[in-house]
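Quick illustration, no need to memorize.
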Amino acid sequence: MLDFAIIGGGPAGLTAGLYATRGGLKDVVMFEKGLPGGQITQSSEIENYPGQIEVVTGMELMEKWPEQCQRFGLQHSMNEVTKLTKEGDIFTLSLINGEKIEAKSVLIATGSVPKHANVKGEKEFFGRGVSTCATCDGFFYKGKNVAVIGGGDTAVEEAIFLSNICKTVYIVHRRDEFRASPHEVEKLNKVPNIIQILSHTTEEIIGDNSGVTGLIVKSKSTNEIKTLDVLGVFVFVGRDVLNQTLIQDDGSFLCDMNSSGEVIVDLNMKTSVSGLFAAGDIRINAPKQVICAAGDGATAGIGAIAYLQ
């Protein structure tokens, strides 16, 4: 019987474990099927984390977090939780290996994953020219032409990162201006080998047996269609929350969610179910920033202590 079970090992889950164990909870386990760190480990450039003066990758930023957060007794179980249920005051975590674990309180911090652009050819060429991680795959396109689909901070940041590796980077956005922060757009405007293609929709990713060979885009104002000569397409069009753990046998959710599948919480990260907390990208109105997820985790960890007391 765990005091506190944490599902997810990103900044929110790790920080919750740190605060809960340092605050006195003894049996605290973080369930994370992979290496701790979360989605931010795939980011190519972090320059806005307080106290971090040098620009680092997401992997470098998160490198020391697990060691620090486990110093006071947080345990890491490299297991995937497939379902969470509650009967009476006790939660049951069902693991992918068939094992069941009971806990008095639980934090859902499963985060989010990149959305698909849902354009023709995207699934067919995923992993063969289509990617959602510039840090992971940018090197394969050294000196070649690539395209970035999206207009938010991530799309702009990753386009800038790719410009240091690739010959030409096309950034395609359906609106007439980027949604990214003014600071990031200002940096983008200064990069000579990034070509901005605004007010265009992505029609199709084309290729052959060797992989991607081009991207077909369409002007929203003139309906002109043109093909960009690229060998790689990087998709950054938002994220989907990972809420499958909360789905019950009848298809309902364990706790209250909004129409986008995000968990509804109060300022203390409490859900509609007593003893269940949610933090990070899976909660409503999440800013999707490392520092915010960490703050959520700290709040949830402190909240779990108060709940158990």
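DSSP finds seven helices and 17 strands in the chain.
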